[in-house]
Amino acid sequence: MKMRALFAVLVLFLTVSIQAQNTGKKKNSRPASSADQEKTVIPEAGPPVYFYDFEKPEFLVPKVHIEHDGNGIGSITFEKKNLAESFTRDLVLSSSTMEKLSALWNELRFLTSVEDYQSHRDYSHLGRMKLKMAEGGKVRTVEFNWTENQSAKALTDEYKKIGYEYVWKFDIEVARKNQPLEAPRVMKQIDSYVRRGQISDPLHIVPFLIELSGDERMPLIARNHAKRLADSIEKKKNED
Fold first, then answer.
1. Spatial distance between the Cα atoms of 194 and 191, rounded to a whole number of angstroms
2. Residue 80 domain flag
3. Residue 232 placed within a domain
4. Alpha-carbon Rg for the chain in angstroms
5. Which of 27, 37, 128, 151 is deepest in the core (most CB within 10 A)?
């Protein structure tokens, strides 16, 4: 009996010691710094503030709708000719693109302006555009097919460039997953966009191009093209 009692006391002593050690370790562990905490915080998308629409039934991309918040987070919805459904993709704009867009919206003083932007010339064969802004309980929408207001024109041009980028991303995704032989043709398209200045922020597509360059589902010629284009964009940025 004495041996059993002594053994029980020994077990109790060891248990208390281990718990005390574990408690001490928890107290002495380094708390997460504010920098560490910030790395794990992903800002949530706010309510849409800016809207852009384009429509021309005869075009290969007859409809485009873009909406995003002040951080450039939102969505893009578009249609492809001869396809019954529309396609929606998440939209994440670069800081460079958002700076340009914000500056142009501010130049227009969009919410307080009464200008309709429509030129006396009618270019309805080029499609109809719509700009809309909603902020602080105020909403304003303007539609036109051609404008002589340079800020309004520059703003719609930036949204067109965003549309080119995201529709191209859709096309290359379809190609590499289902129609790999189409990939070289689709790569030529984005190369043409970049050379003509029709992508708002070419650096924004570099990570995706690098991803494509290593995707063995695509023909080697398309992968090499993606790598060359990524290198060219980065080289031009460094020269600037």
1. 5
2. yes
3. yes
4. 28
5. 151
